[in-house]
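Entry for the shared binder. Reason: the reviewer on the internal report wants the predicted structure included alongside the sequence.
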Amino acid sequence: MTSKIEAVLDALFQPPPDWPTIRDLNLAELFDAELNEVGALASTHDLLALLSEAFVEQSREEREGALREIEQENPLGFATMLAHASNVYYSAPGVLQKLEQAHGYPARPPLYVGYELSAFDEALLEPQKKVSETLFREV
């Protein structure tokens, strides 16, 4: 049985046929965990409570229409929910793997893995410090 959260995520994300589905990735639990971690769980569940009980049984087009209405009534809450849902979806290992295959490079920030930053050199700030001394006068 599909939960309301799964139905919402399914309406928001329509992956290509060979990509993992919302259910394959168990994103409903991850989505709840992320919302709980950032303190947005209650407000998102309040937003989802505005959806009818029949939402789960509706077609994708009907679900999208219902979500558009929610977005118009509560744009900030919807944007928050969408941002967290996107974070959960695009961070899922199966989706990251597909992104990497599709684009040919790692789907991660360029730093932190494999790149070393040089040590900070305080001497590089000396020219700016000298200029700032001449820009301002004491009062």
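Summary line for the report: The mean pLDDT is 82.
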